[in-house]
C-alpha cells in the first residue's frame, strides 16, 4: 500500500470514528514529535488533510486541537528525556548514526537560540523531534523546556489544521456556486503560503547561523 492510500485510509477511519478523532490525532502528533518515530511515521500530511474534515463539520476542531497538542507535548517530552538519558550517546542511535547532519542542524539551532529553538523547531519537520532531544542532551532546565514545549504544541495544531480547513471552505463555496468567494479564499491561502515560503528563504540562513561566539 502506498503513502497516498495510507493517508486516504487514515482519513476515512477518522471520519467514521469521530469520537476517537482526538485520540487518533494525538497519537499522530506524538509519533511526529518523538525522536526516531518522527522519521518512521509520515503523519503530517494526514494531520493537515484532516482540516478539510473540520471544514465540512465531520470533525470538531476542539477535539483535534486538544488531542494533537497533548500528543505533541508528550512526544517532545519523551524526546527530551531520551536526550538527558543518553547524552552524547544520541549520536550513535538511528537515524543520527547514518545522518549526523540532522542532529548537527538541531545542535546549531539550539546553541544559538536556546528555548526559542524548541518553539521554532516544532514547525520545522526534520527538526521537530531532534531539537527536544538536543535540549535534553544540553540539560536544559525541565521547567523552561516544558513551557516552550507546551506553548509551541498549542500553536502548532492550528497551523496544521487551518490550511486544510480553508481549502475545504473554498471547495464548499465553489460547490454551492459561489466561485468568486471561493477563488478569493483559495487565493488568500496561496498568498499566505508564498509569503511564508519567501520569509523562510530570507531568514533561515540567519536562523541556522553559528552562535556569536562561533561555538
TrEMBL record:
InterPro entries: DedA-like, VTT_dom
Domain of life: Bacteria
Transmembrane segments: 153-174, 180-200
Presence of the UniProt keyword Plastid in the record: no
Subcellular location: Cell membrane
Membrane topology: Multi-pass membrane protein
Keywords noted in UniProt: Cell membrane, Membrane, Transmembrane, Transmembrane helix
Family: Belongs to the DedA family.
Listed name of the protein: DedA family protein
Source organism of this protein record: Siculibacillus lacustris
